[in-house]
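S2.1 Query sequence (DUF4393 domain-containing protein)
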Amino acid sequence: MGEKKELVKPLVIESVIDAVSSQGAELVKSTGMGMIGSIATDAVASFIPGLGNAYMSYKQSRLQRNFNTFEEELVGRITRLDELFKLKNTEQKEELDRLCELVLGYVGDEPQEEKIKYLVTGFMNIAEHEKITEDFVLVFYDMLRDLRIIDLTVLKLYGKNYLNEPDENVNNYQDVLDVHGISYEQYETIRRNLVRKGILTTKTDVILEKDLEEIEKAINELQKSLSMATNPKNKSKLPTLKKVKLKSKDRLELTKFGKDFIRYFLEELS
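Output structure tokens follow.
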């Protein structure tokens, strides 16, 4: 009664582990078609026969490239994934399998092949946890789906202090402009978009004490000037009032969600 139920159906993640373990990245590269990619493209061809040939060709080609890249990225981590899978109980294995199916869906739909490595890193971090909810995975992967490579480069810049191995090629905003060939105005648009998505936020860097001192000094000078101006006996030239320069300023920083996001997709926990 108290024993855990045995798995009664083959798991997708077991097929992934077996496929990648048996092939390896070199075989995928040499044949141009990994096992996962082959299964996926065959499935598209058989289940959606009514689509036009041009669209089918594009869809199959993208699926093939994406799943080949997925296997290549996973092959160096497959031993660790297998170890993690074997350490889990039956319930955890089934949960990880459901999440694997979700991730494979994102892999198949991803228009930017370069982002596949981040999908794999995220999945490895999923496997490292004993329990992780489907909603949590969907929130993070939906956000990654909506971001482009250029957005992730900007996040690497803001995440340099939060990653164990920051990108050495991205040290300032000029590096972002040079890498992607964009203008500063376009860079600003990307930053504003990341603020809207809740990944970056405005931080008020308040040097409050110095600002208050400057305001107090300006008020005192204004009072002195008014006193002189209203004194009929005063023959002196009124002093020139100085413009108050406050040092407080707004700047952007990662939100807590943003920090969790970059750690989740840009760096493995193991």
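Residues 12-146 form one domain. The chain has a mean pLDDT of 81.
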